[in-house]
């Protein structure tokens, strides 16, 4: 019996392993295994809400082991160290507990078909001081670490009196930086109801720093302009064409030798695949460590290895590469599932074509803006307000349906609504 291994339980990896489990694991046609370094999954576009405490990973996260038991695949906790494509083996790092005791030694796992879905991490471009002084939001653990620091800073500012302000600096004007900027004001306002009556968005100073000429460079000008206007209305200082050259304890230094002071610093500029990917022999990789693939999403060197999501470098007909977005990971997962089924039946494989269905940016409770694209609209349609918010929420619901099925996803969504009534709206610990 063949062994199909998926490395990485992000949006694409989890959706794919769920389909594979039902198609092959349930019918005992293949062993299906998911490997991830975390026990818990959270939809990555929601990490900024975990970082502010608007979302509690303990309530809204998915446990891989429990999910595996219901969807006919196996889960292994571990961090991928390397791949040997010639021997068809993976090496997982040893696993230790909080006291440093080894729970599991270094392990080797064999595979017949491998899907690399290891996602991406922030790219600090070698900027001095960033790794030592900045918070990153690449995983829910990093987001939770920032949330604890943020809560401590709110407590400090509240105790110091009404003249004190919390200064935050966010480098990177992409979707994460923009959405986090708005969410911080929302959280500061909500703290009034939780023992901090003097706290509000007016006590928060957020500076969003973008090296390019405008924020949201991957989105249309109209969306970027409206998002900029809304952020400025909230009180965000939007610094465009501003390149950070150094981070230090207490702020950033820019290329024009100015300083930006901050109590908390977040780096959300640029992404790359994990560094170990570039060290795997036989893989063709880009400068950003992404793995080059053929149109079928197989690596250029090994037909039994597929790549999906942010770590995939898939060239389009116009010469550009598929952008690292949740919708592309979802589409790639669907195509690889079809191609694995086809390979079992000795049928020809399909070529991947990226379909851009538009983009949405959620500015917390204040606004949502974006555009939808498709044949029904004959191009692009700009949306904002409640309609845009509904579409944004629907994307998360579609993800829940993909990994749970219609019935359970509906139950989860109902439980989340009930939870908002009986539980605090903020994670306060």
TrEMBL record:
Keywords assigned: FAD, Flavoprotein, Oxidoreductase
Domain of life: Bacteria
Gene Ontology biological process terms from the UniProt entry: aerobic electron transport chain
Domain named FAD/NAD(P)-binding: residues: 2-333
Entry-linked InterPro entries: FAD/NAD-bd_sf (IPR036188), FAD/NAD-binding_dom (IPR023753), NADH-Q_oxidoreductase (IPR051169)
Gene3D superfamilies linked to this entry: 3.50.50.100
Known cofactor(s): FAD
UniProt keyword annotation of Oxidoreductase present: yes
Protein name according to UniProt: FAD-dependent pyridine nucleotide-disulfide oxidoreductase
